[in-house]
Design goal:
Helix content: 25-40%
Distance between the termini: 43 Å
Number of strands: 6
Shape: elongated
Structural class: alpha/beta
Oligomer: single chain
Order of helices and strands: EEHEEHEHEHHHHH
Strand content: 5-15%
Largest sheet: 6 strands, mixed
Length: 236
């Protein structure tokens, strides 16, 4: 089990797979530093967590928060090697927290992974190899200000995506991603979760998360309702 910066145990029901929030206990009141951006850092690897915290903790623009205040931080910075199902679940959970915006520091991210990251509501991404102090600060500030930030080599692939998806606030609630539409189409054909997972090469957990996200976002009752909605609106 990983621990937060001040060695408190991370709550087991707040993030999948031992992701923990790192912060500093050396904090003055917010009223004394109204212009500082509050930041919570999530990482599965304690080495990655400590590295990011050490680079940002003394920056005057940043106020690193402890575990108790992480859910109210203006920016949530997720530091990982790659985006797997656990990371996607964490990103989606943070996406539904209206108090925070999420940035991502990642070891490996190709064009294929970019679609998944954007679907999770992440607008600002930095590769870990480029994550020096200045770039980390730029990422945090861009995230907090609702601005998009992507590695230069991936910008060429954005044309195949909805550019508006770079700003999570502009994503239309009535639209579906390609993956969501594909899964709803399979539901409409009578396939269950296990069959959809085999057909799409995703895990059953991912299938459930994707369909739950559609139902929640569109304020529908269940999968059948989601299929009916999608058919009526020409989404599948």
């Amino acid at each position: 089990m990983l621990h937060v910066e001040e060695n408190r145990s991370a709550s087991s029901d707040t993030a999948p797979r031992d992701f923990v929030r790192a912060g500093s206990v050396l904090r003055s009141s917010r009223s004394e530093r109204p212009t500082r951006m509050t930041l919570a850092v999530y990482a599965a690897d304690p080495v990655l967590r400590v590295g990011v915290v050490q680079q940002l903790r003394h920056r005057p623009e940043i106020d690193l928060v402890d575990a108790d205040d992480a859910d109210s931080a203006q920016v949530s910075l997720v530091v990982v090697d790659t985006v797997d199902d656990d990371v996607a679940a964490l990103l989606n959970r943070l996406r539904h927290n209206s108090a925070t915006r999420t940035g991502l520091v990642i070891g490996t991210l190709g064009a294929g992974g970019l679609q998944r990251v954007i679907e999770c509501g992440v607008a600002a991404v930095l590769r870990r190899a480029e994550a020096d102090q200045d770039q980390l600060l730029r990422l945090v500030l861009a995230t907090g200000n609702g601005e998009g930030m992507l590695p230069g080599d991936l910008l060429n692939h954005v044309g195949s995506l909805q550019r508006s998806a770079l700003d999570p606030g502009t994503l239309s609630l009535s639209t579906l991603t390609t993956r969501e539409a594909d899964m709803l189409r399979l539901v409409s054909e009578g396939l269950d979760t296990a069959e959809i997972a085999r057909k799409t090469s995703y895990s059953e957990r991912t299938v459930k998360n994707v369909l739950h996200e559609v139902i929640t976002r569109l304020q529908l009752r269940n999968r059948a309702h989601a299929v009916g909605y999608a058919l009526r609106n020409g989404l599948i």
